Amino acid sequence: MAKRKRSDAAARGTKADPERAAAREGTGTGEGAGRGGAAIAPAMDTPREHLTRRIFTTVQVMLVVIPFVHLGFAGVLNAGAAAMESLRVMLEQNPAFLVSFIAELLQPFAAYLVRIAYRHYAQGDAGYAAGNLVVLLCAELLMQNMVGVVGMAVLLWRTWGRAADVLGPWARERSVGGVLADVSGALVTVVLAALLAFANARLGG
Question: pTM of the entire structure?
Answer without folding.
Answer: 0.74
